[in-house]
Amino acid sequence: MSSRVEAVVTQRCPSCRDGRIFDGFVRMNPLCPTCGIRFEREQGYFLGAMYFSYGMGVVAIGAPITWMIIRRADPVLVASVAFALLLVLSPAIFRYSRTLWLHFDNHFDPLDGSGGDGADPATMS
Ligand SMILES: [Zn+2]
What we know:
The chain has 125 residues and is mainly α. The protein has one domain. Helices cover 50% and strands 0% of the residues. The chain has 3 helices and no strands. The protein has helices at 4-9, 49-70, 75-108. Helix 2 packs antiparallel against helix 3 (75-108). The protein is elongated, with a radius of gyration of 18 Å. The structure holds zinc ion. Zinc ion binds next to loops. The site of zinc ion has 8 residues, from loops.
């Protein structure tokens, strides 16, 4: 089992730290391919990922833009750089915000059946 930091960087399951969270560029696996936990616990579960998305956006896009504004760069150049950064970084911000949210939530409410709700509702009686 890898460390928590390694699992976040490589976007692995927060429970077993082995199964891939994403199956495609932005498509998630509904269940962990290794341990079978359900990643989206309930409808709207990933709203919590917006906190991480916002923070990463402020740092990754806001910091360079602020630096350019302080340096009195051309406003058209500043807007162009902001748009380009947004386009380039959006997929990574999306993936890492969900990964961080899963690991953050799993730290306080584990998905391994010891209190978390990783069970499939269709099989619950
Ligand atoms: Zn897993």
